[in-house]
């Protein structure tokens, strides 16, 4: 009798446990840091669209728009700090800035380094998620558009210019 009761309760527990499992298990972990950054950046695009009706398009100019969003988040944070999830917003908008850089500048790649995600740009390393954290918490002194401009302009100073290709007279290089 006791054995029958135990077996029946185990079978009921097993039935409910099997029923709660998803039919197609979904992996929630990204396969790489780059995939994680792309996913987070896409969340920033969706958030900008749903919350502010702003379209982000991964162009360098769109980082100015992100700066405006971060300014609004800063004002909300100043008014009621508990209502702004600084880490989540900094993570997705930082990923967006980094992905915008990676898509528009050669030599950019993400790396996982403990609890931060540096973006390497040539010999330079930057931390777009940290940029956004300080922008939301501190304010306009931490402008992400300015940081992006300084980083890309500094990088251009160190790029060796390519010599123009020689053109022949037949190709119209000289007007005689």
Description:
The chain has helices at 2-20, 33-52, 62-79, 86-104, 128-138, 144-157, and strands spanning 108-110, 119-121, 124-126. Strand 2 and strand 3 form a beta hairpin. It is built from six helices and three strands, in the order ααααβββαα. It has 176 residues and is mostly helical. The longest helix is centred in the N-terminal third of the chain and has 20 residues, at 33-52. The mean pLDDT is 81. It is 57% helix and 5% strand. The radius of gyration is 25 Å and the shape is globular. It has a three-stranded antiparallel beta sheet. The termini are far apart.
Compile the SSE list and pairings:
Blueprint: H1 2-20, H2 33-52, H3 62-79, H4 86-104, E1 108-110, E2 119-121, E3 124-126, H5 128-138, H6 144-157
Antiparallel strand pairs: 1-2, 2-3
Helix pairs in contact: 2-4, 3-4, 3-5, 4-5
**Low-confidence spans: pLDDT under 50, at least 5 residues?**
none
Count of extended strands: 3
Q: What structural class do helix, strand and pairing data support?
A: mainly alpha
How many helices does DSSP assign?
6
Could you state the order of secondary-structure elements as H and E? HHHHEEEHH
Global mean pLDDT = 81
> What's the arrangement of strands in the largest beta sheet?
1-2-3
Provide key terms for this protein:
single chain, 176 residues, mainly alpha, three-stranded antiparallel β-sheet, 6 helices, 3 strands, 57% helix, globular
Quick summary of this structure?
The protein is mainly α and 176 residues long.
